[in-house]
Amino acid sequence: MEKVLMKEIAFARSGDKGDVCNVGIMAKSKNIYEFLARSLTPEKIKKHYKGMIKGAVEIYPMPNIECIEVVLRQSLGGGATCTLRFDQTGKSMCMAMLRMEMEVDESLVKEARKRDEEIQKKYGS
Amino acid sequence: MKSVKIGSGSAFWGDIFEPALEMAQRSDVQYIGFDHLAELTMALLNRMKSKNPEAGYIPDIIPWMKTLLPVTMPKGIKMITDAGGANPIQAAREVVKIAKGLKYKGMKIGVVYGDDILSDLDSIRQNGWIFKNLDTGEEDINRIRKDIIAANAYIGADLITKELRNGADVVITGRASDNALYVGPLMHEFGWDFSDKYIDRVGAAVTVGHIIECSACVTGGMSNMWKVSKRPWEIGFPIAEVFENGDAVITKTPNSGGIVNEWTVKEHLIYEVMDPSNYMMPDGIADFTSLKLKEEGPDRVKVTGMRGKGRPETLKVCIGYRDGFIGEGLAFFPWPDALEKAKWADKWVRERFNRLGVKFDDFRIDYMGVNMLHGEAAPMEDKDYNEVGIRIVGKTKTYDEADAIRREATHLWTMGPVGVSFGVPMSVRPVVALWPTLVPRDAVKIESQLMEV
Questions:
Q1: Is B434's CB within 8 Å of A64's CB?
Q2: Which of A52, A53, A84 is the best substitution to test chain B (most B C-beta atoms within 10 A)?
Q3: What is the ipTM of this complex?
């Protein structure tokens, strides 16, 4: 097992709908998706954001595209137009998610690195 | 198999213009959709209209149409835009004027309106409907009734489709759902309707609309692929080639910058979605958990297996209401002891506000470069930062109290620790808060008409 930040094994993007922030997580491989789907819980996520989420946390798996949708209710200080947060629309919340420390099998870390290299090779040149 | 090509030319008021023009010039799209309205743009446009009955639409429509029509008209590209905002009829009249000037005799402009339900709120309530707040669960709008300044339903594609059938070259709407700007042309071209027979087809149209409606956000903007996006300063906007069987290919303007790959499509499929198996739009509920993605080639992603679940009986409504003021101020502290200086300033302004008796509904101080974005979730590192900014922000009931926040922040510039740096003071802004809610579909009387040049 290896301790890594979620950023090593997944991509993410977030946005808003009123006072709800949604964080979509894209696993870098099928096995990583399965690991994330198994290990992420609303309690864990709420705790990770240390008091930023006032409402409920919901998790929706999307196995067809190896993604996980996380919905954070009452998490944007009232919503874009009345929040005092600089990040009014929660665009940076996804990167906060990727700070999560996770204990994963070394093979998954290898798969993630391989995917990063593939992306660089396939699209980067 | 029949296919239709539809592109996205704008995702918000202020989006860049060249990608729409380049799409019209270089690609073989048949339709371009333009979204210009954010959640509260309607409140702003209502204010413009109350000052001038001939205003209240997105003013950009005038220069955009002047430049685009000479390209789209000869090629037969049709444009669908929600730039009508709070005054779609006036927006259409302006486009008629432009078309006359360009000598497009016979050109047709469809106008769709009726999304504004501000004057109907009370009669809808009298019929027993409750405008429950979808965010907070608060039961009804009594508390905010007198402060409401906008109430717009997100209308669907019904009448966009109708005006396209009537031969419209351009369709201008009020607060249509962004999604409907794309669903409308697809339903029109393929003859899909809201019957059970076409539930999955309309679901596919809703899904495709979602994928392309935020323009650059699926072609390498706001992207995890930012390091591998090509010539991002020449970013191309997305185009969907949709097939009669409900499959689609997502691509972008030929020879443009940016990137479309399985990751950019995925990151948009998960963007601003709640339950992905019930993505609810006025024209249908799409299920994003059945579809499959496959890269077909450079900047081409095939989407198959899209599904739908029929259209909801209610429409989403955004009610905007006046809710006090926000005052804000900034100052920056340099090395050495930058964080310590910021903490000193934090205490200083709080003491000042106590002394002045300024009352806040809400107040916060951020350390820029330390915790402004990730707040409590950011680890506070104990190190000697190169620089730290302080952002002081509060929400108040009155303009004067909000202005006190701004003013005290500027006082910090001369009374703060050595090295404090500053720039332009920020202005107080009135807050229009949002009350997201639902309304029965049949309580919204949408209408349309066709203007001919």
A1: no
A2: A84
A3: 0.98
What six digits make up the tokens of A70?
């996380």
B378 phi and psi angles, rounded to 5 deg: -90, 130
Question: Which residues of chain B have a CB within 8 Å of the CB of A25?
Answer: 270
Cβ contacts of B213-216, under 8 Å, gap ≥ 24? B213/B8, B213/B11, B213/B33, B213/B35, B213/B178, B213/B179, B213/B181, B213/B182, B214/B8, B214/B11, B214/B178, B214/B268, B214/B271, B215/B8, B215/B9, B215/B10, B215/B11, B215/B15, B215/B19, B216/B11, B216/B15, B216/B19, B216/B258
Spatial distance between the Cα atoms of B157 and B202, rounded to a whole number of angstroms:
11
Q: Domain range spanning residue A19?
A: 2-123
- Nearest to B201, CA basis, from B279, B80, B292, B283: B283
The CA dihedral of B190, B195, B196, B202, to the nearest 10 degrees, is 40
CA distance B273 to chain A (A): 7
Q: How many domains does chain A have?
A: 1
Determine whether the interchain pair A79/B393 forms a contact, defined as Cβ–Cβ distance below 8 Å.
no
**Taking CB atoms and an 8 Å limit, are A64 and B222 in contact across chains?**
no
- The pTM score is 0.97
Across the interface, of A13, A62, A78, the residue whose CB is closest to B276 is A62
Which residue among A67, A77, A84 places its CB closest to the CB of B270?
Answer: A67
Q: Which two tokens stand for residue B430?
A: 């009135």
Cα distance from B452 to chain A (closest Cα, Å)?
Answer: 38
Asked, for residue B453, whether it belongs to a domain, the answer is no
Q: How far is A105 from chain B (nearest CA, A)?
A: 24
Among partner residues B222, B288, B377, which is closest to A52 by beta-carbon distance?
A: B377
Evaluate whether residue B190 is within a structural domain. yes
Q: Which domain holds residue B23?
A: 3-115+154-312
pLDDT in tens, B100-134: 999 999 999 999 999 999 999 999 999 999 999 99
**In terms of domains, do B231 and B358 share one?**
no
Count of domains for chain B: 2
To test the contact with chain B by mutation, choose from A54, A81, A93 the residue with the greatest count of B C-beta atoms within 10 A, namely A81
pLDDT digits (tens, 9 = 90+) for B236-279: 999 999 999 999 999 999 999 999 999 999 999 999 999 999 99
Residues B294 and B346 in one domain: no
Which residue from A11, A58, A82 is facing B433, i.e. has the nearest CB? A82
Chain A residues near residue B227 by CB distance under 8 angstroms: 120, 124
What are B297-327's pLDDT values in tens digits?
999 999 999 999 999 999 999 999 999 999 9
Same domain assignment for residues B50 and B167 = yes
B430: closest CA of chain A, how far (Å): 9
CA dihedral B262, B265, B270, B276 (to 10 degrees): -90
CATH assignment of the domain containing B392: 3.30.70
